[in-house]
């Protein structure tokens, strides 16, 4: 029931800006650790094989143990307070409303013909160059973000909550935060963030594949092209440098009859990426809305399965 209540709480409140979100504390710890390490000017080799792994393992351990100890103590003191705290902690590990709102904020200016406004909004979501993106490229960037993060931002933390409760869900959130902050494949983080990126790949391996299947199921319920979703998922789910990202993206691209991926500009350089899906339909703002619907229905399916399994254990 905790997962259901956490999902409903997120749908109702989202991520209040003034709320002391655990990710804020994770971010502060990661930045201070990095600042301390870089002041010592270690060699790139030491960043890769010592400080990078130390950052990753310490962040995961700290936030797992803090959550575990807090809930254990609370359970002994007041069981009702423990149940409430468990729901609140799970709420902080998922982000369906936040993710859907970010997608909608890109759709809104597009629906009014405001390309510049849409470019600005999508620049908050992606690391690619956005100043000269066309309408279809803006849609592609927003849809890829929504689809990929169905796994990273919702299904994965719920999956780990199912296995190990709120503490493991919080540990996953630490992994995901590490990857988003230091897991870049650029000169600055190639070595320091190498271990974090690999751990993120491992943690997301199963959830990404589950998410792809959930999106196929959601496309059937929403009366999207579920046959194409199934076909494209199995055909294109490996068309990405990441071992995980293309699984939800391929299922979603098939469901919407659109093509994602392809050449993309990062920091002034064109990066060749494999295509995912087929351009049966021209990318439009409406596809962003459809991807958001896939997000919610996929999540509801997973929570429903989650609840049924728990009831029968």
TrEMBL record:
<keyword id="KW-0169">Cobalamin biosynthesis</keyword>
<dbReference type="GO" id="GO:0015420">
    <property type="term" value="F:ABC-type vitamin B12 transporter activity"/>
</dbReference>
<keyword id="KW-1003">Cell membrane</keyword>
<keyword id="KW-0472">Membrane</keyword>
<dbReference type="GO" id="GO:0048472">
    <property type="term" value="F:threonine-phosphate decarboxylase activity"/>
</dbReference>
<dbReference type="InterPro" id="IPR004485">
    <property type="entry name" value="Cobalamin_biosynth_CobD/CbiB"/>
</dbReference>
<protein>
    <recommendedName>
        <fullName>Cobalamin biosynthesis protein CobD</fullName>
    </recommendedName>
</protein>
<feature type="transmembrane region" description="Helical">
    <location>
        <begin position="202"/>
        <end position="222"/>
    </location>
</feature>
<dbReference type="GO" id="GO:0005886">
    <property type="term" value="C:plasma membrane"/>
</dbReference>
<comment type="function">
    <text>Converts cobyric acid to cobinamide by the addition of aminopropanol on the F carboxylic group.</text>
</comment>
<keyword id="KW-1133">Transmembrane helix</keyword>
<comment type="pathway">
    <text>Cofactor biosynthesis; adenosylcobalamin biosynthesis.</text>
</comment>
<feature type="transmembrane region" description="Helical">
    <location>
        <begin position="77"/>
        <end position="94"/>
    </location>
</feature>
<comment type="similarity">
    <text>Belongs to the CobD/CbiB family.</text>
</comment>
<keyword id="KW-0812">Transmembrane</keyword>
<feature type="transmembrane region" description="Helical">
    <location>
        <begin position="49"/>
        <end position="70"/>
    </location>
</feature>
<feature type="transmembrane region" description="Helical">
    <location>
        <begin position="294"/>
        <end position="311"/>
    </location>
</feature>
<dbReference type="GO" id="GO:0009236">
    <property type="term" value="P:cobalamin biosynthetic process"/>
</dbReference>
<dbReference type="Pfam" id="PF03186">
    <property type="entry name" value="CobD_Cbib"/>
</dbReference>
